Amino acid sequence: CGKQNIAMRGHTPELSNFFAILNSKAQGDDILRDHLANRSRRAKYTSPDIQNEIINIIGNQIRTSIVENCNNSKFFTLIADETTDTSTREQVSVCLRYLERDTITNKISIKEDFLDFVMATSTTGKHLAELLIETLISADIITMNMRAQGYDGAANMSGKYKGVQARICEMVPGAMYVHCKSHCLNLAIVHSCKDTSVRNVMSTVQEVAFSFDYSSKKLQAFYQELDSDATTKENMDKRT
Question: Is the pLDDT of residue 97 over 90?
């Protein structure tokens, strides 16, 4: 459910995804089917509390594996971002970026793994830096192996003297700050869209796209036009 971003529970326990998957599994498992059918409600071990306990156990196992892989890789990058959730609390997402070698093929691949969400009571550079370091230490990450840190360009994160990156550099001198490339691209697009010519082009492209997107007749005519030209059809067949 986690890998597919599917909610565990629904409006009622009986209609939840958890029970749907459990009952599906029980069709091919006599012991599980008998357990679900004949055990008393207090001994089925399917309550929300038990579900949460199982989720926490699985989460701890996954986190232990991530930490072990990161420490074995020797060096890593800390990636973090803070945002306000729907309950108006400040949440900081903590991710790790490191290299992993396949023991069978001996190939090296880049891994980016989510480690944890942590609650922040303040968004100052000092507080966030201490929070991130505490999170790494509590997860048993070897913090002195940090060789880079990546955040957005907000002053509290990228500040040269009091930002998170500066504070962490004081604790881990080898951790070089890298401005998040996705944020850089976003800023570049936002600024370029203020240009009149770019804005006009995007408006025209949007109108053309909407014209085909909301009309099956126009889209069919477009496909027929493409099919009529052999060269165009050959090139388009290579694309999705």
Answer: yes
